[in-house]
Amino acid sequence: MKRFLYYFGWTVVIGFIIFLGTKYQIRVEEEARNNYEIIPIFLFGTIFPIVIGLFLRLPKLIIEIKQNKQWTFDWIKFIAIALPTLYIISMSILPLGGSIKIPEYMINGNPTILIIAGTVFGFTLLDSLKK
Predict the structure, then answer these.
(1) Residue 5 pLDDT > 80, yes or no?
(2) Are 92 and 42 in contact (CB under 8 A)?
(3) What does pTM read for this prediction?
């Protein structure tokens, strides 16, 4: 029962953060329309999913912190999962050149891909920390 309440509490907290983030996103979009600035929309749309990914992994990380083990970092997981998602995220902000190009419609026309990539990056970033 204690474990259920722990995870349920985190679910409520994360849901509340998503609710507040959505309200803030609406405010940012209104400000951007009034000021003709699109950069805050891109930054919020990129950073918020990463924060949500971090929060999704945080409950398990807190449990791992309580254990008395040595910290390690899983470089293979970080390189195989986090770096490609970071590349996808950065393609929405920076016009990066290179040999691996992502079709423009996947980045600019479909924010779902950026939301998924940001969430996976945030989750994997904390998941790569092992105790």
Answers:
(1) yes
(2) yes
(3) 0.81
